[in-house]
Amino acid sequence: xxxxxxxxxxxxxxxxxxxxxxxxxxxxxxxxxxxxxxxxxxxxxxxxxxxxxxxxxxxxxxxxxxxxxxxxxxxxxxxxxxxxxxxxxxxxxxxxxxxxxxxxxxxxxxxxxxxxxxxxxxxxxxxxxxxxxxxxxxxxxxxxxxxxxxxxxxxxxxxxxxxxxxxxxxxxxxxxxxxxxxxxxxxxxxxxxxxxxxxxxxxxxxxxxxxxxxxxxxxxxxxxxxxxxxxxxxxxxxxxxxxxxxxxxxxxxxxxxxxxxxxxxxxxxxxxxxxxxxxxxxxxxxxxxxxxxxxxxxxxxxxxxxxxxxxxxxxxxxxxxxxxxxxxxxxxx
Length: 333
Ligand SMILES: [Fe+2]
Prior knowledge:
By secondary structure, the protein is an alpha/beta fold. It has a single domain, classed as Roll (2,3-Dihydroxybiphenyl 1,2-Dioxygenase, domain 1), CATH 3.10.180.10. The chain has helices spanning 23-33, 79-91, 165-176, 229-241, 297-300, and strands at 10-20, 37-42, 45-49, 59-63, 68-76, 95-99, 108-112, 118-122, 154-162, 179-186, 191-198, 206-210, 218-225, 246-252, 259-264, 270-274, 289-292. A hairpin with a 4-residue loop joins strand 10 (179-186) and strand 11 (191-198). The chain is globular and about 60 Å long. The termini are far apart. Bound molecules: fe (ii) ion. Fe (ii) ion (FE2) binds next to strand 9 and strand 13.
């Protein structure tokens, strides 16, 4: 039996890069509809943050031929933890070496998941300081709540699609100290279909779901946090009114108890708006909860919302050839 590596060497999900073939459309969605603020531009990238995000940026939008996840950044709990986790990733054969970092991000250690999702660990980050006109009298808040759109407070979590869920779960547990809070198992084949993982008290900061198309290394969704379920209903109204395709919700998953609204931003990436905090996990020895795929309706949606089989379990970014049409209205496919 292997000795578990120290827990809590990763603090949280710090930043994500989304690739978009429609940079202007994606920018409109994140800044006008979601009220995120631009903090920098560099060549084909725009850096954005929610009003309670702690750092220089939480989202980097980069123009690309196809939608997808560019990079996902995890902040460690110390400089020493960064060195230890980098060594663990090298031992696992997943390390890709040190980088000079990025705007607002110091040196990072790059690595890949078994499917090739690009990630990095970072300790040194630029904490956000608002200019005088954006300083909030609510001192626990890094900047004033924007007046435009319906702004989420911060980046929340990521959901990856993978060709082998168990391989990803074991890598995140063993090399990085994630705890698996919940999982879904197809007991007819003893296959893990999905896992929900966390490095802190959140019910999940990352999910990994089986890509039923067999494709490797795709993004299912990136989620931003409202913490107020009514905001998901308000966001659904705005999406209807301003032409953003809603995939599912608002409703609440039984898994994680997360209040969800899934939409597709103009670049084609699936975005979740997260209307509560879901179940929080304080137990250091919490045992993984197992859902049976054969009895799964409550796990999917407590209120009975449909997660469309033609998109939810097969569409990811980059889209497979021909999948772009899944985002068109049914009458136009
Ligand atoms: Fe999610």
